[in-house]
Structures are given as C-alpha cells and as structure tokens.
Design goal:
This protein has 176 residues and is mainly α. The protein is built from 1 helix and no strands. The longest helix has 174 residues, at 2-175. The N and C termini lie far apart (253 Å).
Length: 176
C-alpha cells in the first residue's frame, strides 16, 4: 500500500509537472505571439509614420514650389504694373502736349480770324471810299457837262450877238 500510494503520488507529481510545463510553454508561446503581434503593429505604425512623413515632405516641397511660383507671379505682376504706370505717364504727357498744341492752334486760329476781320474791315472801308470816289467823279462829270453846256450857250449867244452886230453894221452901211 505504501508503495502503491507513493507511486500514485509520484504519478500525480509527474502529471502536475508535465501539466505545468505544458501550461508554461503555452503561456510563453502566447506571450511570444503577442509580442510578435506588437512588433508587427509597431512596424506597420513605423511604415505608416514614414509614409506620412514622406507625404508631408512632398506636400512641403509642393507648397514651397507654389510659393516660388506665386513670388514669380507677384514679381511679374509688379513689373507689368510698373510698365502700365510708365505707359500711363507717357500717355498723360502726350495728352498734355496735345492739349498745349490745341491751345496754340486755337490761339493761332483766333489770331487769324482777327486778321481776317481786320482785312474785311479794310476792304469795306476801301469799297466805301471807292463808292465815294465814284460818286464824286460823277458829280464832277455832271459839273463839267453843265459848264460845257453853259459854254455852248454862251458861244451861241456870242455868235448871235456877232451876227446881230454884223446885220446892224450892214444896215448902217446901207443907210449911209
């Protein structure tokens, strides 16, 4: 009985020991699996982080490129604006010059109109003088005609007187 009991105890101890070994082995395997899972997860997270970092770097590069492009556009716009400002100034100068020329032309035109008016006045005065001269000439011609008529009349009277005198002289001579 003692031997049988001892054998039974040994068997139980061996069984327990085997069981404990298996249980411990299973636990270790589970821990290893868990750790491997964690490692895989961490590797995946690392990959994700590296990928995200690369994406961020790409975005940063793209944004920097956009900034450079915008700076270039801004420079171009400022240059274009300066060119436009210069053109505006040049056109404004041309406008002022043309206004001055217009003023000069208008002043010259006014001066010419004044000269034309003065010349027209002189022409009217000369026309009036011509009319007056013509009227005076006609008046003189009329006076000349009247005087010539008077001269003719006086000549006729003189002839009549001479004829009458001759007739009288003849009568006297006849009477004598």
């Amino acid at each position: 009985n003692e031997q049988s009991s001892k054998q039974s105890n040994d068997n139980q101890i061996n069984n327990l020991s085997d069981h404990n070994e298996q249980s411990s082995k299973q636990t270790n395997e589970n821990q290893i699996n868990n750790l491997n899972d964690q490692i895989e997860k961490l590797k995946q997270q690392l990959d994700n982080e590296q990928s995200s970092k690369q994406t961020n770097e790409n975005q940063i590069n793209n944004l920097n490129d956009q900034i450079e492009q915008l700076k270039q556009q801004l420079d171009n716009e400022q240059s274009s604006k300066q060119s436009n400002d210069n053109q505006i100034n040049n056109l404004s100068d041309q406008i002022e010059q043309l206004k001055q020329q217009l003023d000069n032309e208008q002043s010259s035109k006014q001066s010419n109109e004044n000269q034309i008016n003065n010349l027209n006045d002189q022409i009217e005065q000369l026309k009036q003088q011509l009319v007056n001269e013509q009227s005076s000439k006609q008046s003189n011609e009329n006076q000349i005609n009247n005087l010539n008529d008077q001269i003719d009349q006086l000549k006729q009277q003189l002839e009549n007187e001479q004829s009458s005198k001759q007739s009288n002289e003849n009568q006297i001579n006849n009477l004598n």
